[in-house]
Amino acid sequence: MSVSSTLDKLKKAVLEGDDEIAQGLAKKALKEKIEPLKVVNEGIVPGIQEAGELWKQNVYFHTDIILCAEAFRLAMEVIEPKLSAGALAKSGKIVIGTVAGDMHNLGKIMVNATLRGGGFEVIDLGEDVSQDAFIQKVKEVNPNILGLGCYMSTTMLEMKEIMSRLNNEGLRDKIKVMIGGVPCTQEYANEIGADAWGKDAFDAVEKAKKLMGVS
Ligand code: B12
Q1: Of 86, 119, 147, the domain-final residue
Q2: Burial of 121 (0-12, 13-18, 19+ CB in 10 A)
Q3: Are 133 and 125 in contact (CB under 8 A)?
Q4: 1 lines ligand 1 (CB under 6 A)
Q5: What is the residue with the minimal CA distance to atom 65 of ligand 1?
Q6: Residues 77 and 149 occupy one common structural domain
Q7: 27 CA from centroid of ligand 1 (Å)
């Protein structure tokens, strides 16, 4: 099977929410020696992006998206360790998580993958992460960057409060803060005093590297 055929099939499996098929194709792509980042960028990501478009057009519903999310997750599960292993230099250490009250994680999974692909060590705290848990982890592992994922307007305040907590705990000067997710904007990052906003997974890597002064 040709490279493009495997990646096309992988994209289709994610788009159609065929989780086991997507996972099998991700493994197959690696066996065919396709570069892990290429599998992400040309197979898995286009599938979920197209699913997002269909959602916007009201063609896909919640149930469809949940299936796509699972297919995305299982395919990424195969590729992610290879991205970490393949990363040569360590660009820096990032603690990342979805803020409290928010369970969305697809965007964060993608950002994790591209950050790892970009040479960052990523410590993912998961979803619905409390302010205490973020602060505790920052104290414990002393990351270069804290990444906050927020996907609903109703959970945006969490990011502002985390910024205050970082200030109050004397941690603000020790790390950079990067925010991302659907309702986030550069303006909001400025408003709460974050260092960067990542428009998408690729912008997130660029901004993170810029914050670290690496290219
Ligand atoms: C998929 C989805 C779900 C799935 C989530 C599956 C999962 N495992 O994540 C399910 C069905 C479970 C779900 C549930 C809900 N959802 Co929903 N969901 C979406 C949807 C359709 C797509 C989100 C997504 O995954 N996009 C694809 C990813 C790849 O894109 P992304 O998240 O934008 O991420 C990119 C960038 O933002 C950036 N990025 C992301 N994170 C980060 C982090 C950092 C640090 C950086 C730098 C960059 C970055 O890079 C990513 C990759 O390029 C959006 C609609 C939309 N337009 O976004 C609604 C949406 C986010 N959901 C919404 C709502 C309301 C809900 C529910 C409350 C629905 C309900 N009534 O039950 C629940 C919330 C439950 C909870 N407490 O969190 C609303 C939020 C509205 C608001 N108030 O702002 C939206 C906007 C839909 C809408 N228009 O109404 N949802």
Answers
A1: 86
A2: middle
A3: yes
A4: no
A5: 152
A6: no
A7: 27
Q: Do 154 and 169 belong to one domain?
A: yes
Instruction: Kindly give the confidence (pLDDT) of every residue in the chain, 215 residues in length, as a single tens digit, with 9 standing for 90 and above.
Output: 455 799 999 999 999 999 999 999 999 999 999 999 899 889 998 898 888 789 879 999 878 888 888 898 899 889 988 876 554 447 899 999 999 999 999 889 878 877 876 778 899 999 999 999 999 999 999 999 999 999 999 999 999 999 999 999 999 999 999 999 999 999 999 999 999 999 987 789 889 999 999 87
Check pocket membership of 189 for ligand 1, CB cut-off 6 A.
Answer: no
Number of folded domains in the chain?
2
Give the domain extent around 79: 3-86
- Terminal Cα distance for the chain, rounded: 35
d(CA 175, CA 166): 9
154 Cα nearest atom in ligand 1:
83
Same domain assignment for residues 96 and 82: no
Q: What is the pLDDT of residue 117?
A: 67
Question: Which of 86, 102, 122 lies at the terminal end of a domain, its last residue?
Answer: 86
102 lines ligand 1 (CB under 6 A): yes
CB neighbours of residue 152 within 10 Å: 15
Nearest protein Cα to ligand 1, atom 69: 62
Give the CATH number for residue 47: 1.10.1240.10
For ligand 1, atom 56, the nearest C-alpha belongs to: 182
Q: Give the pTM.
A: 0.82
Distance CA(193)–CA(178), nearest Å, equals 10
